[in-house]
Protein 1
Amino acid sequence: MTEPAERITKARAHDRLVGGGVGILDLDRLRLETAGDHVAVEASMPLMVGDLDRDRYVGCLRRVYGIVAAWEEWSASSSPEWMHSLLGNRQRRGLLERDLAWFGVVQLDEARPAMPELKDDASRLGAMYVMEGSTLGGRLIARHVERVLGLSAGVGDAYFCGHNQQTGTLWKEFCGVLQARVPDRETDRVILAAKTMFQVFGSWMQLAAK
Ligand code: HEM
């Protein structure tokens, strides 16, 4: 059995490796305080209905494309170097392009929502929490659209299949980085950035639907 002192030394060594947090960010508070924002964003993406048809589904993919492209363009141009591999392993714009091409859409919209200002790691990771968390519900959506639209897994719904079997592992890894990089006292900043990102996502989906 590991002695407490040894565990603390190991945890601190791990903290130094992943960036050195002081106190653990409160993930449960983040979840709880953004639960209402999740409900709102879910409503902006009405895919989980029995009478979903291809046109509505493709319309939704086209709108999601604008925001995913905006996020990945921000990642490429403005994220700090330490985030590059974290973000690079999770890109999904190509999956959306594949899905849209499968439905015959090759002319991709160039309109993008404005990204919020993300000045520090707490805010960047708060925004990433939203984009990355969407992979969790995505798998549920994938099973649904496969059934309702008669799609084969990963063909036309590759974006929602997302990281596939890697989803849980990548999510755990992301939560680990979030907790290690952001000290507990900055939880408010993460929550604010997550709320703003949910808002940007939801408004874009609604605006683009008009
Ligand atoms: C119809 C649309 C959606 C459905 C049905 C849905 C469903 C879900 C479900 C079931 C989970 C929990 C999964 C788990 O714990 O394994 C989840 C988590 C999450 N979803 Fe969604 N979702 C949808 C859209 C979105 C969108 C568009 C976003 C982002 C803009 C989003 C962000 C998140 C986040 C951040 C979490 C993680 C919460 C946490 O555990 O900390 N979701 N979603």
Protein 2
Amino acid sequence: MNYFISQFGHPRGKTGKFLSKIMNISNKKMYKANMSKIKKGMKVLEIGFGNGKQLQMIKKTYPNAILYGVDISKDMYCIAEQRLENNAKLYIADAESLPFDDDSFDAVITTDTFYFWNEPEKVLSEIKRTLKSRGIFVNTFNTMYASSVGKARKGDGIYQECTLIETARRLDLKLIGRKKIGLCKRLNIFRKGDNDG
Ligand SMILES: C[S@@+](CC[C@H](N)C(=O)[O-])C[C@H]1O[C@@H](n2cnc3c(N)ncnc32)[C@H](O)[C@@H]1O
């Protein structure tokens, strides 16, 4: 796999630190789009928090939000811990197995990550398990990466947006909204157990 794709998927060392700052710039509109779906006092989990910039922005806007994060990168965890001090509970963990009880969160958010998940179905199952009933999952992503990273990693298109939406639907995570953010960025929002509309 291409070195840069592997760094974006699991940032490490000085290169990872540098790339995480680039992501802060290129993903800023997606952070803001995610934040527009959060309400004060919510208990929120971010999957793949990178250097912690998005959680920091949320804390600034919603000081009462209760924030959690997971990331597989130990180096990102160390940077984010310093940035966030005690304002979020962070874990080095794979989203395929979330270290939280059932029905824990009002919202799970993620930015620029789903094409790096090895087992998207497992991650979506974990999101569903840890969301409270009628909790929301907000996924912001870059459509160009969804296709190029997906192909580079697996070559079978499994990481495309439509596949993710279909898997979510099967798991009773209902797509309740979609939004374009600029040219090639998107937001999808899902709700757990929304069968009654
Ligand atoms: C492209 S970076 C995006 C970072 C951050 N969300 C941002 O937008 O600045 C992808 C992040 O997801 C993390 N990641 C990838 N796969 C993961 C998984 N299965 N579970 C948890 N974190 C994961 C990586 O370590 C990396 O920090």
